[in-house]
Design a protein that fits this description.
Radius of gyration: 22 Å
CATH superfamily of the largest domain: HUPs
Number of strands: 17
Order of helices and strands: EHEHEHHEEEEHHEEEEEEEEEE
CATH topology of the largest domain: Rossmann fold
CATH class of the largest domain: Alpha Beta
Number of helices: 6
Structural class: alpha/beta
Helix content: 10-25%
Number of domains: 3
Strand order of the largest sheet: 12-15-14-13-16-17
Length: about 375
């Protein structure tokens, strides 16, 4: 896509992907400005080698200088504070949070896009591996051309009316191609390691929870499928649905976490078949189309229930701001707090936040 001098702001994290996105836009003729998001938070790191936020800011500055573009810094400390509160509070509800989805919605394509518009840009660009393209006369969010790196799942919650203001330069290429482009162009971060943690938790997130909500790390019982106490744990925040590691109980067969009860600090475990769900329920659905489905509509879709999960075919029944899903084949480890994202072909139709798994006792669409 040629920019022809059009103004775009690139969200620059100091990493390889956002740096290559900026490089590509400069080469395409856009008038590019970089924008670094400063959290203002001090991370809790159990890993002494974890990179500091100051290093990321310095890397973003070096890349901007290399490309000859201006770089602004936006202080979003209050937004990051709310993100951390959400992260910790979800564990307090016995759910597994997905902070990247919330950050994309509220900060990267919320606060940063607002700032980009204030700077006179017509769009914001990021280093996400996904695509925005015209479908039926409206902008649509699509999977990346690289299925191994596709990040469209994490973008489902962006408000529909913002899609037309988003540019995703990396959506048509692979991560390997981005690395190669970074090296060939001499970007200062071409060999920088990819972050594996939530950006505000460098290392063990239990340290953050211990500081913010020590009550979430209180001991409690581990209970099997027959209601027997078979062990003890040191806090439900250390567990997620489907987990086997850390379930230290004596059984002839492996046992997995099948549910969490935050009120009683109880971890329920069972055999692997107890992880299978016929369906799920979501709340707070977000639809990425100008013609969203109406209450009572039933849609055939592929449903992705976590990052890297292979989307499963199912029926999505739209109900009261959310939806119920019935899978064609039962799915493993449906996890409250995670997102369920609905695809029609390679297009993200919408999605919502998983409330609970649905089983044989539930009415399914």
């Amino acid at each position: 896509m040629s920019g022809h001098g059009r103004k775009v702001v690139v969200a620059m994290s100091g990493g390889v992907d956002s740096s290559v996105a900026a490089l590509m836009l400069v080469r395409q003729g856009w008038s590019v400005t970089g924008l670094f998001m400063r959290s203002g938070l001090v991370t809790v790191a159990s890993d002494p080698d974890a990179p500091a936020a100051a290093d990321d800011a310095g890397d973003a500055r070096r890349v901007a200088d290399h490309l000859g573009i201006p770089l602004h810094v936006l202080d979003v400390g209050d937004g990051f504070q709310r993100l951390v509160d959400y992260f910790v509070d979800e564990y307090g509800r016995g759910r597994t949070p997905n902070p990247c989805v919330v950050c994309n919605r509220d900060l990267k394509f919320g606060r940063l896009l607002d700032c980009a518009l204030d700077l006179g840009a017509e769009a914001i660009a990021t280093g996400h591996y996904a695509r925005v393209a015209d479908r039926g006369g409206e902008p649509a969010l699509l999977r990346s051309a690289d299925p191994d790196k596709d990040q469209s799942y994490a973008l489902f919650a962006i408000p529909c009316d913002r899609l037309g203001r988003i540019v995703l330069p990396l959506g048509e290429q692979t991560k390997a191609a981005s690395r190669r482009m970074a090296a060939e162009s001499g970007l200062p971060v071409h060999d920088k390691a990819e972050s594996q943690d939530a950006c505000f938790v460098a290392g063990d997130y239990a340290d953050l929870i211990r500081q913010r909500r020590p009550d979430l790390l209180r001991p409690g019982p581990i209970v099997d499928e027959l209601g027997r106490e078979v062990g003890r744990h040191q806090g439900i925040a250390a567990f997620t649905i489907g987990q086997r590691r850390g379930v230290r109980v004596a059984f002839g067969q492996p046992r997995y976490v099948v549910s969490l009860d935050a009120a009683t600090a109880t971890v329920h475990v069972g055999p692997q078949e107890h992880l299978l769900a016929r369906g799920l329920r979501v709340e707070d659905a977000n639809w990425l189309t100008a013609r969203p489905p109406r209450d009572g509509d039933v849609i055939e879709a592929d449903v992705q229930i976590r990052y890297k999960h292979r989307a499963a075919r199912g029926r999505v029944a739209v109900r009261g701001g959310g939806a119920d899903v019935r899978f064609d084949e039962p799915q493993r480890a449906v996890t409250p707090g995670q997102a369920a994202v609905f695809y029609v072909g390679d297009r993200v139709l919408g999605g919502g936040w998983i409330v609970r798994a649905l089983g044989a006792e539930d009415a399914l669409p």
